[in-house]
Amino acid sequence: MLSTGNVQISDLLNVTPPWIPEGAHVMTQLIELPPADAGLPPHRHSGPVFGYVLEGKILFEVEGEEPREIAAGEPLWEPGGDVVHYQMANLEPDSWSRFFAVCICAPDVEMITLLEPEEIKARDHLRHPSARQHAE
Fold first, then answer.
1. Considering the entire predicted model, what is its pTM?
2. Which residue segment(s) compose the domain that 106 sits in?
3. Sign of the CA dihedral 62, 65, 69, 71?
4. d(CA 34, CA 91)
5. Cα separations (Å) of 134 from 33, 37, 124, 131?
6. How far is CA 56 from each of CA 15, 49, 52, 103, rounded to the nearest angstrom?
7. What is the pLDDT of residue 3?
8. What is the pLDDT of residue 8?
9. Quick one: pLDDT at residue 131?
10. Residue in 62, 67, 68, 58 with CA at minimum distance from that of residue 89
11. Residue 1 located in a structural domain
12. Per the structure, how many domains does the chain have?
């Protein structure tokens, strides 16, 4: 943690992102999930996403990783590109969950692309074994 005077800076996440193409742009989003909402269906992002849960807790699953709970005050990240983002559900049954995301967007590619059912099925072998068991 860096501290000078009354200012404190705490590192929450330190990762090496994938290569960022020339012409990429950055957007910051606030994502708000209603109580018990399943969030977006499986999708991919055109570039890496870095985030932080502001309120509540979410179920977060990225292709190849075990689904995990991320609670308020915790960071998240995903590499984007060809990696599928399967879940970002609100685990709070009676309250909203909110998180912000900083998205690095590849040039001329939509930031979010929803997957067709055929592609979800074809990529099932790439999901973490615990996620495949719950999806059946």
1. 0.87
2. 24-135
3. negative
4. 10
5. 21, 17, 12, 5
6. 24, 19, 11, 21
7. 65
8. 85
9. 87
10. 58
11. no
12. 1
The whole-number pLDDT of residue 21 equals 80
On whether the CB atoms of residues 80 and 45 are closer than 8 A, the answer is yes
5 occurs within a structural domain = no
Q: How far apart are CA 78 and CA 103, in angstroms?
A: 10
* Averaged pLDDT in 10-residue chunks for the chain of 136 residues: 78 85 92 97 95 98 96 96 95 98 93 95 93 62
Amino acid (one-letter) located at 21: P
CB atoms near residue 29 (< 10 Å):
14
Dihedral angle sign, alpha carbons of residues 120, 124, 130, 133: positive
Strands (DSSP E) along the chain, which ranges? 2-4, 7-9, 25-33, 43-45, 49-55, 57-62, 68-71, 75-78, 84-90, 97-105, 112-114
Task: Give the domain CATH number at 101.
Answer: 2.60.120.10
Rounded distance between C-alpha atoms, residue 17 and residue 73, angstroms: 21
- Please check whether residue 16 lies inside any domain of the structure: no
59 part of a folded domain: yes
104 CB-contact burial (10 Å; exposed 0-12 / middle 13-18 / buried 19+): buried
Looking at residue 4, its pLDDT comes to: 72
